[in-house]
Amino acid sequence: MSQASPYDGLSADLHEAILSEFHLQQVIPPWPGGPVRGTLTG
Questions:
Q1: Which residues lie below 8 Å from residue 37, measured CB to CB, with a gap of 6+?
Q2: CA angle 32, 33, 35 (to 5 degrees)
Q3: Which of 14, 21, 26, 41 could pair covalently with 31 via S-S, beta carbons 3.0-4.6 A apart?
Q4: Three-state DSSP string of the chain
Q5: CA nearest 18: which of 26, 30, 10?
Q6: Cis bond leading into 29, ω under 30°?
Q7: Which of 14, 8, 42, 9 is nearest to 26 (CA)?
Q8: Res 42 pLDDT > 60
Q9: What are the backbone angles phi and psi of residue 17, rounded to the nearest 5°?
Q10: Residue 10: CB partners within 8 Å, gap ≥ 6?
């Protein structure tokens, strides 16, 4: 038996919106606060 997808039952639009977003948090080094960077480098 396999586990059901957490996306089962969502509308196609909501499913696409969730999967097209990146949710990243700086961990190493810890984020010092201030403005949020828009890039992964620099």
A1: 26
A2: 125
A3: 26
A4: CCCCCCCCCCCHHHHHHHHCCCCCCCCCCCCCCCCCCCCCCC
A5: 10
A6: yes
A7: 42
A8: no
A9: -60, -40
A10: 18
**How many angstroms from the chain centroid is the CA of residue 18?**
8
For residues 7-11, average pLDDT: 87
Distances (CA, A) of 37 to 7, 23, 24, 40: 29, 13, 11, 8
* Beta-carbon count within 10 A of 38 CB: 6
Q: What is the pLDDT of residue 35?
A: 81
CA dist 42 and 2 (Å) reads 42
Residue labelled with tokens 């499913």: 15
